[in-house]
Amino acid sequence: MRIARLLLLLPVLGSLLFLADGRLAQIRADEAAPLPVATAQEAGFAADRLDRLHETLRRLVDEGKCSGYVTLLARQGRIADWRAYGYRDLAARAPMEKDTIVRMYSNSKLITSVGAMILFEENRLDLDAPIETYLPQLAKRKVLKGGTPESPELIDARQPVTVRHLLTHTAGFIYDFGGNDTLSRLYRQAALMDAKSLEDFVERAAKLPLSHQPGAEFRYGINTDLLGAIIEKVSGKNLETFLQERLLRPLRMPDTSFDVAPEKMSRLAKVYQRDKSGKLVEAEAVSSSFAEPGRGFPSGGGGMFSTAGDYARFAQMLLNGGQLDEVRILGRKTVEYMTLNHLGRTSKPTHQFSESRGFGLGAEVMIDVAKSPTMGSPGQFGWYGAATTYCQVDPQEDIVAIALFQHFPMNEPKVFERFATAYYAALVD
C-alpha cells in the first residue's frame, strides 16, 4: 500500500523544485508559468551554479544595496530558473514576487520598436522616409553648433531625420541626463516628460535642435517617443491601443501597459535609491512613468510597466523569429534585420555606452565579445531600463535572460555584470 501511494505521489514530487532560499516551488505544475518549464539540468544549466548566481544577487539585497529582484532564465523555450527575492515595498515588508509589476523604463523601447516594424512589414511605414512625412512639426531640423541656451548657434541639418534614424538613435535627439551644456539645458527647459500627450511631446520637441547631423553617430535620446507618435499617426490609433491589439494581447501579456489598473496596484514595486548615508529610500518616479491611468502620456521610450513573465514571452517571441504559441507578430527575416548592427552606416560601429555592442532597429547587438565586460555571444541583443532592468536574448545559446530590479541609478552595484557572468558560467551543455 505504501509503495502504491508513493508511486501516485511521484508526478507531484517531480514537479517540486527546492529553491536556494529553502522554499519549495511547484513551478513545473504552475499553469500561470509564462513559458513551459524545465529543470536546470534539462535546460543545460548546472543547478548549483544557478544557486551561486542567486547567492550573489541576494547578497546585494541583504547588504541593503538593493531592495529586491525578480529574475528569469529561459533556454530552448523553457524556463529553467525563475525566482524572486527581497521586497517590492520595504516599508510594508511586501515581498518581491514572480508576478510583481515593475517600471520597465527604457526596456519599453524594444516593444515600441517592434510595433513600428509591424507597420513596416505592412508597407505602411517607410524606414527611410523623413519623419516630417508623418510629423510635419519636425521639418527643417536645426543642429546646435554652440552658444548659450539664451542665444544658441544653429545651422541647418544637411538631410532630414528619418524613421531609421529614430530606431537606431542616430537622429541627433538627446536625453537630458542632468548635464550643464547648452543642449542639455535646452532640453531640460523644454520639460519634455511633463507633456500631457504625445502631440504635446512632439510640439515641445519641435523647438529643440539636434546634437549632430542626422545619421552621423549614435546619441541616445527621445527617439523612441517620437517613434511612438509616428505609430499613432500611421495606425490611426493611440499607442496603447495599437500595441495592445497588435502585440500585447496576442502574446498574452496581460500585465504590460503604460499604466497599472487599480486592482493590480498592490503588485507594483516601488523604486529605491540610496541616500548619502547609504540607506535605501523611495525614489521619485520619472513623470513619464505614472502608474495611475490617465496621467502623463504614453512614453514609447520609457513609460511601460511589465512583469518578468510578460517580458519573457515578448523576448521569446523575438528569439523564435517573431512567433510564439502559433501567434506570429513579425516575420523571421524582419527580426533578423532588426538585430543586425545598423551603426555600420555611421562613423562608429558601437553605441555610446559600450565598445562591444552596436545597435540595430530598437536594440543593442553584441559585435565584439572580447571587448565586453562579461561573457556573451556574437549577435545577442537586448536593452536595459533606468530602474535597473535587463533583458538579453542570445540566439546562439538559445537563452532569454531577464533581471528586474527597481533601483536608481541604473546598475549601481554592477547588477548586470554579476547576473550575466553567473548565468553564462552556469551553462554546462
Shape: globular
The CATH topology of the largest domain corresponds to: Beta-lactamase
CATH class of the largest domain: Alpha Beta
Strand percentage lies at: 15-25%
Distance between the termini: 40 Å
The total of helices stands at: 11
Summed over residues and divided by their number, the pLDDT gives a mean of 93
The figure for the number of domains is 2
| Share of helical residues | 25-40%
Report on the structure:
The chain is α+β, with helices and mostly antiparallel strands. It has 2 domains: 18-108 and 252-425, DD-peptidase/beta-lactamase superfamily (Beta-lactamase, 3-Layer(aba) Sandwich); 125-239, Methane Monooxygenase Hydroxylase, Chain G, domain 1 (Up-down Bundle). The chain contains 11 helices and 18 strands. The strands form 6 sheets. An 8-stranded antiparallel sheet has the order 5-4-3-18-17-16-15-14, sandwiched between helices. A two-stranded antiparallel ribbon has the order 1-2. It has a two-stranded antiparallel ribbon with strand order 6-11. Strand 12 and strand 13 form a beta hairpin. The model is unreliable at 1-31 (pLDDT under 50).
